[in-house]
Specification:
Oligomer: heterodimer
Strand content of chain B: 5-15%
Strand content of chain A: 5-15%
Distance between the termini of chain B: 35 Å
Distance between the termini of chain A: 63 Å
Shape of chain B: globular
Largest sheet of chain B: 4 strands, parallel
Mean pLDDT of chain B: 94
Shape of chain A: elongated
Number of strands of chain A: 10
Largest sheet of chain A: 6 strands, parallel
Helix content of chain A: 40-55%
Low-confidence stretches of chain B: 248-253
Number of helices of chain B: 13
Number of helices of chain A: 23
Bound molecules: iron/sulfur cluster
Chain lengths: ~475, ~250
């Protein structure tokens, strides 16, 4: 997927003036946050679970090579073909190769962020394979020709009315106000596809090294259908999803849905181990697992390693007041919100995405809700320092900061600067709040005032009142 | 309280309050002295370096942080009427000097001695009643760095509730960011303003006559919007409420 994160400011502004988007976003993120909060409050073991999940992830990442080797061995032993892709291009090539080799013309897909990351749909479609999204939200954004805007709720930016109009123009369905009717329409359309597809494509929420299993969490059962009905199953996921043992899984099964949607458990948990065996009533004849690196092993080596602990629950998106107002598309790539503001620069490079680390007030709401304790604000700060180091800051900002630092190095200079500031703002505003600041601060005063500087700063006044001689 | 005598406290008045709200600094001194602190005001202090640190300009941030460390005596507490500046010293300095062992030791020492005003009053001095004479219906905004950075949730509320003339009314989502975010409000003014507007809706819904917080940054944004639109509520720093009357109306943002 093309990276458009450099235009964050422009997209954000556009999002703010999109009334339908605002209505959809504010309602949904608020609801999801409230559901999460209630589910966590009703979960007495939360702190311990969070500690444990975080520790399991840390341990796994510390010996990821070993865990991956184990996973590949166990999965292969049970009949899977495991592929490893260095980058997006190689991932596409492998996936297209599999589709060709298996003679696939129609694939049903359930949600996979990594597939978005490597632009899988476009590559398959180009190779003559029709790909139909089977997750309701993904199906909606696919019909609209848009990328997902949330990692859990892909169509969170769409209102019911917009979806009805979309179904009307794309599917020729009569308009409706009823959500069950819309769901029923999608279900009916998708059933036909499930039955005739040769391949099911999924992501993976977790991989279990011990058993070579692919673990999928879905709420609509589409993951279950897509992995059992078609002859071939292709699971596309990142190398960081592996967990050592089956016994490590339960804590994540409890944390992920609670953090994501406030559910104690996801509706469908599929643990897929190997291909269909003799006497199995269902399951794919062929199972391909495509593990994508795409920059992850580089992250593993550096100071942002903990970002790979992310289980894509989306809690940080819902909690983020910036995401709540600008939505996922503003972030310009696959991963939005606070996790995306960190992950996108790490995967695509800061040159492509340098505004993202600034798309935050550093309020910390994201880290507060993250079930695996990723220090997101700290990472945003580190990335901002990287922006400077990589020479991606504007000369104006650097000059401004240098000037600030040289003033702040001497109290005397600061006093002199304050005197000028004070005189100037008293002169311009006569002590009233200032309603128009010059560039680059003009945006500040478009809708709010700025206080005039004090006639006498504290330091000066203190010296006078306490008789300190200069 | 320490029976051995007055507690030595250095006031870190912050560059923002120095230039824009001297009243907040005086209020802080007044409250500290009321409870027996021996307040020193190091006059060579300037800025903790937060603006540079938060924008990723580490070199400049280090220069300012070094200046901060030089300006304060090496003993006693450092108290400031700002959650974000306290948080900068506490959490930012150890990051800034992680590769400079000698300065790191100084930074760590400062990070252990620094407190935000309400936190210091309650947690160190054991104050339960600020003995303030403030009157009015007040709502409290949890500044992000004060609440999440320093973990200060109850102290300001405890103090506000103990003032006989104050009626504390909680707003919805008091811990939701006001949109200031330092340089964020300059880089993304539209998003910032939207967040401030959302904050103000919640403030107005309480019917309070005052909104208070332990961070001047938030009050600049909230107060600036109140002043632009003439909303019927005043933004007042927590220190000013704790200091009590006479409260100078011209100090309103
Ligand atoms: S960063 Fe944390 S909260 Fe955000 S999606 Fe990942 S695991 Fe969830």
């Amino acid at each position: 997927m093309e990276v458009r994160s450099r235009a964050f400011a422009r997209y954000a502004q556009r999002a703010l003036s999109d009334k339908a988007l605002q209505a959809a976003l504010n309602g949904a993120t608020g609801r999801l946050s409230a559901l999460r909060a209630a589910a966590i409050a009703a979960f007495p073991g939360y702190d311990a679970a969070r500690e444990r999940a975080s520790a399991v992830k840390e341990d796994t990442l510390a010996r990821l090579d070993e865990q991956l080797a184990r996973f590949i061995e166990e999965a292969s032993r049970r009949g899977a073909v495991v592929h490893v892709a260095r980058d997006a291009a190689q991932a596409r090539e492998i996936a297209v190769g599999i589709a060709k080799e298996e003679g696939i013309s129609l694939a049903v897909k359930s949600k996979s962020m990594v597939a978005e990351e490597v632009d899988l749909n476009a590559a398959l479609q180009e190779a003559g394979v029709e790909v139909v999204e089977s997750d309701l939200g993904e199906y909606i954004v696919q019909l609209a020709g848009e990328p997902p805007s949330h990692i859990i709720v892909p169509a969170v930016h769409k209102t019911r009315g917009e979806i009805s109009r979309l179904f009307e123009t794309r599917l020729g369905e009569p308009p409706t106000d009823s959500i069950p009717r819309l769901v029923a329409t999608a279900r009916k359309r998708l059933r036909e596809k499930f039955l005739s597809a040769g391949m099911g494509i999924t992501g993976a929420n977790f991989l279990v090294a011990e058993t070579g299993s692919v673990v999928l969490l879905t709420n609509e059962g589409n993951g279950r259908m897509g992995t059992t009905l078609p002859r071939v199953h292709l699971a596309v996921t990142g190398i960081e999803k592996v967990l050592p043992r089956m016994s490590d899984l339960p804590v994540f099964l409890r944390l992920l849905p609670r953090s994501a949607t406030g559910q104690p458990l996801t509706s469908y948990v599929s643990i897929l181990t190997g291909t269909r065996r003799e006497g199995d009533p269902e399951g794919p004849e062929r199972l391909h697992i495509l593990l994508v690196d795409g920059g992850r092993s580089a992250i593993l080596e550096g100071k942002y390693r903990e970002m790979l602990k992310c289980i894509r629950c989306g809690a940080c998106l819902n909690a983020c007041p910036v995401y709540q107002n600008v939505g996922g598309h503003a972030y310009g790539w696959v991963y939005p919100g606070p996790m995306g503001a960190v992950l996108t620069p790490l995967l695509t490079g800061l040159a492509e995405s340098s505004p993202l680390p600034d798309a935050s007030t550093l309020c910390g709401a994201c880290a507060e809700v993250c079930p695996v304790k990723i220090p997101l604000p700290h990472f945003l700060l580190e990335l901002r320092a990287d922006v400077r180091e990589q020479g991606l800051k504007t000369p104006g900002e650097i000059a401004g900061m240098k000037m600030l630092a040289s003033v702040m190095k001497r109290a005397g200079l600061l006093e002199a600067a304050e005197r000028i500031l004070g005189a100037l703002s008293q002169f311009l505003s006569r002590g009233n709040p200032i309603s128009g600041l010059p560039y680059p601060f003009a945006g500040w005063t478009e809708r709010r005032d700025f206080p005039a500087a004090a006639k006498r700063p504290f330091r000066k006044e203190w010296k006078i009142r306490r008789g300190v001689r200069e | 309280m320490d029976p051995k005598g007055p507690v030595p406290v250095s006031l870190f008045f912050t560059c923002l309050a120095d230039a824009f709200a001297p009243g907040v600094c005086f209020a802080t001194v007044e409250v500290l002295e009321r409870f027996g602190a021996q307040v020193r005001v190091p006059l060579s202090q300037t800025c903790c370096g937060q603006p540079a640190f938060n924008t990723g300009n580490r070199k400049e941030a280090r220069a300012m942080a070094r200046k901060f460390l030089r300006s304060f005596p090496e003993d006693g507490y450092i108290v400031t009427p700002s959650g974000s500046c306290a948080s900068m010293v506490k959490h930012g300095y150890p990051v800034l000097f992680r590769d400079e062992p000698r300065t790191l030791a100084l930074a760590r020492a400062a990070s252990e001695r620094i407190y935000e005003l309400s936190q210091f009053l309650v947690e160190v001095l054991g104050v339960t009643d600020p003995k303030s004479s403030f009157t009015g219906k007040v709502t409290y905004h949890d500044s992000c760095h004060l609440r999440r950075g320093l973990g200060v949730v109850d102290p300001p509320r405890t103090l506000l509730r103990a003032i006989p003339g104050v009626k504390l009314v909680e707003m919805e989502e008091s811990d939701r960011c006001c949109g200031f975010g330092g340089v964020f409000s300059v880089k993304h003014p539209q998003v910032s303003c939207r967040m401030t507007e959302q904050k103000i809706e919640r403030i107005l819904a309480t019917g309070a006559s005052y909104v208070t917080a332990g961070d001047l940054g938030c009050l600049l944004s909230i107060g600036g919007m109140i002043s632009r639109h003439g909303y019927p509520v005043k933004a007042v720093h927590l220190a000013e409420i704790l200091a009590g009357a006479p409260w100078d109306a011209e100090e309103a943002f």
